[in-house]
């Protein structure tokens, strides 16, 4: 039972309870029927576990040259745009557990699929829903839900400042970034714009020029990623936020960055604070903005454990 079904049953139970209280004793048949339905609802609420986490849903609508009002959308564009968008989300979701290889199949791609569940009214588009293989507790956001949020942050970052784009790009695997570029390239090629509505947030390109500018800002001339080794020592790690401070040897500089998915338990690093180490980080720069650092390999410690 999902949360929506449970809410319907709770509402019906309340209605029946109120109705039962108002029925006179003389309405015997009506009371028997109402009590029977009430018992059935109570049994179902008691017996069926509640799957409280709803599947992630996103609304993706398009406008521009390939869209004919609310009547239709050119199939070639629609297929390419949705395909590139879903590929981007699947790549981001897969990268949450481990860095992606430069080539080859996206790991666990089947677990990160989106379903087209409906067409979106208004400007033409689609409603997409996470394909669920199993159930997750309410407190855990699924990889697809996280990927949708990161994809939306990245699109928002492309129309924001260099620092905003660097923050969102640093959270995105290089291969997933390529998939987002492919999505924007499709929009630009077909002179289309899109709106992405996810949860209570919306993002919208205002015109094709803005799409092209976003694509250029994601280009490798503007968004640069380099792998670097740093020697020094960890000053501290926040396990839940997965952030670290690392003092570079021989310098006053303290690098602040994020712990990448290659290290599952970030708290383990706190056991070796102030010990000499070499770390490998991905350095992301946008324009002339300050760099962002992500730890992409387990540290090499100068002393054995």
Characterization of the model:
This protein is of the alpha+beta class and 305 residues long. Helix content is 37%, strand content 27%. The chain contains 7 helices and 13 strands. The strands form 3 sheets. It has a 5-stranded antiparallel beta sheet, covered by helices on one side. Strands 8-9-10-12-11 form a 5-stranded mixed β-barrel. Strands 2-3 form a two-stranded antiparallel ribbon. Strand 2 and strand 3 form a beta hairpin. The longest helix is centred in the N-terminal third of the chain and has 20 residues. The protein starts with a helix and ends with a strand.
The main β sheet shows up as:
5 strands, antiparallel
Q: Identify low-pLDDT runs.
A: none
Q: What is the number of helical segments per DSSP (H or I, 4+ residues)?
A: 7
H-E order: HHEEEHEEHHHEEHEEEEEE
Secondary structure tally: strands: 13
User: What portion of the residues fall into strands of 2 or more residues?
Assistant: 25-35%
Query: What quaternary form is this?
Result: single chain
Distance, first to last CA: 49 Å
Task: Tell me the radius of gyration.
Answer: 25 Å
Mean pLDDT: 90
Helices and strands in order:
Layout: H1 3-22, H2 28-47, E1 57-64, E2 67-68, E3 72-73, H3 75-94, E4 114-120, E5 125-130, H4 143-158, H5 162-170, H6 174-189, E6 192-198, E7 201-204, H7 208-218, E8 223-238, E9 243-248, E10 254-259, E11 276-286, E12 292-295, E13 300-301
Parallel strand pairs: 10-12
Antiparallel strand pairs: 1-5, 1-6, 2-3, 4-5, 6-7, 8-9, 8-11, 9-10, 11-12, 11-13
Short description:
By secondary structure, the protein is an alpha+beta fold.
